[in-house]
Structures are given as C-alpha cells and as structure tokens.
C-alpha cells in the first residue's frame, strides 16, 4: 500500500487505464444498438461470439506479455492495463468482424429470397444492365413474350420485346422520365416472339448500382373486360333512352350475343295472376335451337319448376350441366351450361351454351350486370309510368273533381289556388294568389291554426265551414333540406257527405223507433217526421195502399205539408205520377213538376218533387215550392227512409199475423186443456168403472180404452207444452235428461220406419243435457227430416255426438246425410215459423220451427251446414246441466 500510495500517476498511466474503459463503454453501447437494430437474435448471438473470441485471443497474448514484464520485475499495478487493453481491443475487433459477417449473411439471404421471388413470381421480372441488356429473366417474363427459355433474353436489349414505333416512344418519352424520377409505371404495347402485339402493364425502376428492374404483366384479358364494360355502359345508356320494356328486352338479348358471345339467350315474363313465366323474347339462334330439340317455340315455365324457384329466390344461379338439373321445365333439351338471372319482378333471363362448364366467372359477372341494368331500366319505366299515371290522376282530379288545390309559403301568402271546386262557390282560378291568409281567412281560427301547425312541419287534417259549404282540408308541409318552405293543401267539398252521414244517423234512430211500433199510421208518421226534421225534406207525406188495392190513401204528413194543403188527395190508377211510381217501383225526381203533363193537380203549388216507392205498401212524397231543390243525397236518403219504412211495415204485418196465429194456438190450447182433456178424463173414469164389472173379452176392451185414454192424455199434455213454448206462455221446466238413451231410441224408431235407409251412429254412453220430456220429439224431428227430404235409395244418415268433455258447457249433436243438401239461401229461413212446411214434421207436428224454438228454450242453438262431400248436416248444441 505504501508503494501504491507513493506511486506517481503520469499521463501515460492514465491513458493505459482509460483506453480499456472507453473501449468497454463503446462495446456496451454497440450491444445496445444491436438489440434495437433489425438483426435477428441469431445474428446478434453470432456477433457476440465473434466479440468474445476476439477478447479471449488478444487477452491471452496480453496476459503473456504481462507475465513477461512481471518476471522482469515490473510492478503488478503498472502491468495490469496490458490484459485489460488486450481483451477490450479483441472484443472490439471481434464485434466489428461479427457485424460484417452477419451483414454478409443477411445480404446473401435477401439475395437468395429475391432470386426465389423472381423465379416464382406470376409477373414477368427482368434485370437489365446500364446498356439495357438483360442480365436476369424469370420464366413468367419469358411466357409473357412467348419464349420457352428465359436465357433467350440474356445479352440482348429490351428492344427485342417491342415494335419499332413503341420502342421509339420508350426512348423518347419513358426513359427520360424514368431516370428523372427513378421509376416509371404505365402501359405499353409489347411484341411476342411470333410478332403479335399485346397490351402490357410495366413498372420500371432504376437500380442503385446502375441498370433497371423491369416488372411486366399481360393485361389483354383486363383490356377485353374493360372494353366489354364500356360496351355495357353504352348499352345501359341505351336502356335509358327506350320507352318500353320490350325494347329493353330486345337490346339485352342482342348485347348478350354481341358482348358475351352467347347467342342462346331467352327471356320469360312473369304473369303474377297465373304464377307463370311466359315466353317474352329470345335470340334467333335460341329459337332455332329449341326447334331442333323438338319444341314448338319456348315453353312456359310453371310454378313447380326449378326455374320458377330461381325467379322467386331472386338470386342468379349458374347451372354447369342443365341435363343434370332436377325439376327442370324441359329436361330433354340438349343444353349444357345455363346461367339463370332473375329480371327483378319482371321475369327471368336464361343465357346458355350447348357445352357444360362454358360460362366463366367473368362472363357471369358481366351477364349479371347486364341483367341488373336492364332490371333497373324496367323499374325506371314502371316508376315513370306510375308517376305519369299519378300526375294524370291528379290532373283529372283537379280538373274534374270538386276539390281545391292551393299552396301557402312561409310568409303566409297564397301562391296557388286552382281546382274545379272553386266553380261551385263562384271563385275564379288563382283569384286569391298574392293575398295573405289573414286577409282572406283571418276570421276562421280553424284555418289559421291548421296552416300555422303545418308551417311548423305537422301534417294537418281538419273540417271547416267556408263559403256556405263544408270542406275537409288536408295540409301537407313541403320541406327542402329539412326546412319547411311551403304548405300544399287540398280542400274537398264534403257538404253532401256530411249531410248524408247525418241523415243516415237520423235514419238509424228513426228505424229503431219504427221497429218498435205495430200500427201502420204511427210508423208512417215517424217516417214523415224524420224526413222533415232530419233529412231536410220539410214538405213530406206518405200514401198507403187501401184494402181494396185500388187507391193510395194519405196516412201521414209533415207539419209544413198540413199547413200547405187543406186536404191531401187520394191517388187512383192512371190519375197521377205517384200511382205510376207505386206501380213501377222506381223513384222519380222533378226539378219542376209543373212541366209534367201527368201531374195530379195542374194548379199545384209544388215545383220540385221527389217520389219514392215504399215497396208494395205505398209511396213517400217530398216537395218544395222552389225549383231544382233535390240533389243526389236527398234521393239516396229518401230511398233509405222508404226502405226502412217498408221493413217496419213488413214487420208490423208479420207481428199482426203471428199474433193472430198465437191467438188461434192459445184458443186451441184452451180447447185441449178444458174440453178434450176433461172429456178424456170422463172416458177413462167410465172405462175404469167397467173394468171392475166386466171380464173376458169385454174386460180387455175396457182395458184398451183406459190405455188409449192415458196415451191420448199424454199426447195432449205434450201438445200443450209445445203450444205454450211456441206462444211463450209456458214454463219449459228444464231438468237433466239422458241424451244417449233418448237419441238411440229416436234412431231406432226412424230406422224401423225406414229399413231401406242406412244409419251410422256414434253415441257415447251416459251423456246428460239440460232439456225436458220433449227432447225426443226435437231430435226425432231432425232425424226424420234427414230422411223425408231425400230419396231413400242409397241414403245414409249419420247421427253422432262430438267427443264429450265434462269441462265443456255444451254437448254437440250432429245429424248428417248424403242427400241433396239445403240451399244457402234458405239455411236460416227453414227454422222460421212461416217455413214450417219446408220440412215434413213428425211427433208434435211443428217441424224445424218447433226444433229451433225448443232448442232456444233449452239455452242451446241449432243450425245447418253443408255436409262433405254432399248433403246437409244439422248441428244441435245442447247445454249441460
């Protein structure tokens, strides 16, 4: 330590220690740079090994030199720098050598990869020297120019590959620009070995070491496709100039042949009503091809064919071999490849070839574009036609329908006012244009509010009274870039419609009131009151046919009619217009009845007159002391009033007749209840007395009298029940009844009566319904009706009960036959009382009216339907207990 402390450090000593330290720091920085560089980890490891080897080698020599100096007596500290410096220098030299070794290997690998890329490239690649001579050429480059061996180019110049004119252009235009910018890309015309030329896309780059890199590609197919696309665009422009779909179809077929080279092209049009593709147009070669195949022209394509399926799917389908296609419409035609392309909703296009797999992807692409453009053109024609039709309809509406069309701008000014509706109110076309809404309609808050809302962007629909009329007005805002610029409106005169609607509501009320009455005069008075107060027919009256059918008597009149006439006339045959209307059954309208020679009173004060028949009952007359007072709405409402009056009179007539029948039935019931039943009681009592006194045959006779008396009493009681049910005076006294046994009993009874009729039954056991002792009579009527109204030869009657479920509220009984059935127009009326003669009755003798009445009393329902395949089916729903 003393030696060390006393050691004199000189500048030499500092350099001897500092240089190894600096080299070590440099190596550390060099290592960090290598990690950040693009060298792979394997290359960095090789550089590190080179550096380590250099440090070991030079460090060993330095250590030997240090050992020598120590033997010579030099101090250890003064000789320590020698191995440090040796190792640092060795590591540095090794690192540099390793770097160049790794770089050389990378360059070799890159060059090898480049050579492989050039050799396998689909593009033609060549490397030329500074004199324009080929040094490296790949196989693709040789193929482009029609050579088999790439070495054929080596040593020759690029002029070999171009015609003289093109080579001159390259010398004059391309090469100067290439050396100015360092690269050039464009299209040239190349020349093959056989002298043919072709379009090529070429990329040229200047090599850093001199010479050129050339990449060339044959673009013949691309140019052909571009030419076809240009033709396609031209055809599309032609599509836009034609006026009919037929012209588009013809041009499309011609283009398929001219542009794609496929003459076997045909088009089918879709018939949506028949769901059929019908032949539309075809190329002449396609027609001849079909004829050679034995077809009489192009066939229609039916809904079950695969072609129709392709059309409905709206997706193009390429069939490589039509002969292998299942469900094809014409399987025997010798077609190979067929491309089916739907023509939107217009039809289907077929482009075919006799050879399989003849249509490539490019042709398919172009064909689909062609058909797509044709479809768009046809859609355009349809839209234009629809627009033209819409404009024509709008023009027709504006010119002929009583509407008013107007527009209003943001300043609330009227900018348009047209329409036939203005003529009705005496306003000229565009008379109010330039005026503001406030100046013209300021006193109508409904109008101003509607316009304000519409100018704010809201569609508005209002009803407004204006100029003595009622209008329904639609306001629609018109926007430009999201801003409302003006409002377009349509006003329709709905005065008559509103009057008609109000009249119809009044007629409904009057009809309900009339239907509650049975007195003829009361019904007619309601009618004239309705005409006066609700329909705007203040002078009205009704005449009805007298009992002798030889005159029409006045039975009701309005207040104004009574004030105008002291006494209404009686109309007799051949003496008046009213009698003519009554006989003919057609209404008449007179703007001025004084012009008619057949009027009843030549001095009449009536001018306008409306006469409407009330069916077989009479006429309704309405009049006015002014001429031309009745419009179409008045006629319609008057006819409705007359029809409702006729219905009320018919109902009253029916009710009177039914009441008369009810009275007769009640009278008959009283006879049964008192006279007949009392008489049978006396007979039975006497017979019972005789039974105690007689024996032998006389006793049997007395017993027979008693049995028949009991049977007759039972029948009388049933008839009483029926009569009370039909007249509504009795209590049906419903109770649970065993449907199964009753129904089987009735079937057996009818089967015994008609052995020639076949009966099928499906009746489950233990089915109970809510009814009474007349249930058998009800079911027996229906079953017997099925036999009586059909020929028994081959007749089959089915009686069944639907699957029974205790959770259901009703049980359904069905009686069906295979007879002639029941016409639709009487399926409901056969159950009415006045139709009882339609069905031959049994039992109680009241037929299907009795059936309907009793089932209704039970709380059920009965109706008739068509049986399948023929006959009628009566369906009876009976409530469960």
UniProtKB/TrEMBL annotation:
One of its GO terms (cellular component) is membrane. The chain crosses the membrane at residues 15-35, 47-67. It catalyses: ATP + protein L-histidine = ADP + protein N-phospho-L-histidine. Signal peptide: none annotated. Gene3D superfamilies: 3.30.450.40, Histidine kinase-like ATPase, C-terminal domain, PAS domain. Keywords: ATP-binding, Kinase, Membrane, Nucleotide-binding, Transferase, Transmembrane, Transmembrane helix, Two-component regulatory system. GO terms for biological process: osmosensory signaling via phosphorelay pathway. Residues 671-881 form the Histidine kinase domain. Its EC number is 2.7.13.3. This is histidine kinase. It is found in: Membrane. The lineage of its organism: Archaea, Methanobacteriati, Methanobacteriota, Stenosarchaea group, Halobacteria. CDD domains: PAS (cd00130). It is a multi-pass membrane protein. GO terms for molecular function: ATP binding; phosphorelay response regulator activity; protein histidine kinase activity; protein kinase activator activity.
């Amino acid at each position: 330590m003393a030696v060390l402390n006393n050691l004199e450090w000189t500048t030499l000593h500092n350099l001897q220690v500092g240089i190894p330290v600096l080299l070590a720091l440099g190596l550390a920085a060099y290592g960090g740079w290598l990690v950040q560089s693009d060298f792979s980890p394997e290359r960095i490891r090789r550089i590190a090994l080179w550096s380590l080897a250099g440090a070991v080698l030079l460090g060993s020599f330095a250590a030997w030199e240090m050992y020598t100096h120590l033997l010579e007596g030099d101090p250890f500290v003064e000789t320590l720098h020698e191995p440090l410096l040796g190792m640092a220098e060795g590591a540095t030299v090794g690192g540099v050598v390793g770097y160049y070794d790794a770089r050389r290997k990378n360059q070799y690998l890159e060059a090898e990869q480049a050579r492989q890329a050039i050799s396998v490239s689909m593009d033609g690649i060549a490397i030329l020297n500074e004199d324009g001579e080929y040094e490296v050429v790949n196989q693709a480059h040789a193929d482009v120019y029609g050579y088999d061996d790439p070495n054929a180019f080596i040593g020759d110049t690029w002029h070999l590959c171009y015609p003289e004119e093109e080579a001159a252009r390259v010398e004059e235009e391309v090469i100067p620009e290439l050396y100015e910018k360092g690269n050039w890309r464009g299209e040239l015309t190349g020349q093959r070995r056989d002298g043919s030329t072709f379009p090529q896309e070429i990329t040229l780059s200047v090599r850093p070491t001199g010479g050129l890199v050339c990449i060339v590609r044959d673009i013949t197919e691309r140019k052909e496709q571009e030419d076809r696309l240009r033709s396609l665009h031209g055809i599309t422009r032609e599509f836009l100039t034609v006026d009919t779909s037929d012209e588009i179809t013809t041009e499309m077929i011609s283009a398929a042949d001219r542009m794609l080279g496929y003459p076997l092209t045909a088009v089918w049009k879709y018939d949506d009503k028949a769901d059929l593709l019908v032949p539309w147009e075809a190329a002449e070669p396609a027609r001849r091809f079909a004829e050679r195949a034995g077809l009489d022209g192009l066939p229609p394509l039916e809904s079950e064919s695969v072609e129709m399926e392709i059309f409905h799917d709206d997706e193009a389908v390429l069939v490589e071999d039509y002969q292998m296609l299942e469900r094809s419409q014409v399987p025997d035609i010798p077609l190979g490849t067929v491309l089916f392309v739907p023509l939107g909703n217009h039809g289907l296009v077929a482009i075919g070839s006799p050879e399989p797999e003849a249509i490539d992807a490019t042709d398919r692409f172009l064909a689909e574009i062609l058909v797509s453009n044709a479809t768009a053109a046809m859609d355009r024609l349809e839209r234009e036609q629809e627009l033209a039709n819409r404009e024509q309809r709008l023009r027709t509406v504006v010119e002929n329908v009583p509407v008013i069309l107007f527009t209003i701008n943001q300043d609330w000014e009227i900018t348009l006012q047209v329409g036939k509706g203005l003529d009705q109110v005496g306003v000229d076309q565009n008379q109010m244009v330039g005026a503001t809404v406030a100046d013209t309609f300021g006193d109508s808050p409904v109008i101003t509010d509607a316009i304000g809302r519409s100018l704010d962007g809201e569609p508005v629909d209002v009803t407004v009274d204006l100029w003595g009329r009622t209008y329904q007005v639609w306001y629609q805002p018109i926007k430009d870039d999201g801003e409302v610029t003006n409002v377009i409106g349509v006003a329709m005169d709905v005065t008559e419609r509103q009057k008609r609607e109000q009249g119809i509501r009044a007629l409904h009320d009057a009809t309900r009131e009339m239907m509650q009455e049975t007195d003829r005069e009361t019904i007619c008075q309601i009618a004239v009151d309705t005409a006066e107060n609700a329909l705007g027919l203040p002078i009205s009256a009704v005449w009805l046919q007298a009992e002798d059918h030889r005159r029409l008597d006045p039975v009701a009149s309005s207040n104004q009619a009574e004030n105008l006439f002291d006494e209404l006339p009686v109309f007799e045959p051949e003496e008046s217009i009213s009698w003519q209307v009554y006989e003919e059954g057609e209404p008449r309208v007179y703007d001025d009845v004084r012009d008619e020679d057949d009027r009843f009173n030549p001095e009449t004060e009536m001018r306008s007159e409306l006469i409407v028949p009330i069916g077989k009952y009479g006429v309704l007359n309405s009049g006015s002391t002014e001429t031309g007072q009745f419009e179409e709405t008045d006629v319609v409402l008057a006819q409705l009033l007359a029809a409702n009056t006729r219905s009320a009179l018919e109902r009253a007539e029916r009710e009177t007749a039914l009441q008369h029948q009810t009275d007769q039935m009640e009278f008959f019931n009283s006879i049964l209840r008192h006279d007949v039943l009392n008489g049978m009681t006396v007979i039975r009592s006497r017979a019972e007395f005789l039974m105690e006194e007689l024996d032998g045959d006389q006793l049997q006779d007395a017993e027979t009298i008693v049995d028949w008396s009991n049977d007759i009493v039972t029948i009388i009681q049933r008839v009483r029940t029926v009569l009370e049910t039909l007249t509504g005076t009795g209590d049906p006294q419903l109770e649970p009844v065993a449907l199964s046994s009753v129904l089987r009993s009735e079937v057996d009874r009818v089967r015994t009566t008609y052995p020639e009729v076949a009966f099928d039954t499906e009746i489950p056991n233990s089915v109970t319904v809510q009814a009474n002792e007349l249930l058998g009579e009800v079911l027996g009527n229906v079953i017997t009706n099925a036999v009586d109204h059909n020929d028994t030869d081959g007749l089959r009657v089915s009686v069944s009960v639907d699957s029974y479920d205790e959770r259901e509220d009703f049980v359904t009984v069905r009686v069906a036959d295979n007879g002639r059935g029941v016409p639709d127009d009487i399926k409901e009326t056969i159950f009415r009382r006045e139709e009882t003669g339609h069905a031959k009755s049994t039992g109680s003798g009241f037929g299907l009216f009795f059936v309907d009445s009793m089932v209704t009393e039970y709380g059920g329902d009965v109706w008739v339907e068509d049986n399948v395949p023929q006959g009628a089916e009566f369906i009876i729903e009976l409530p469960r207990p």
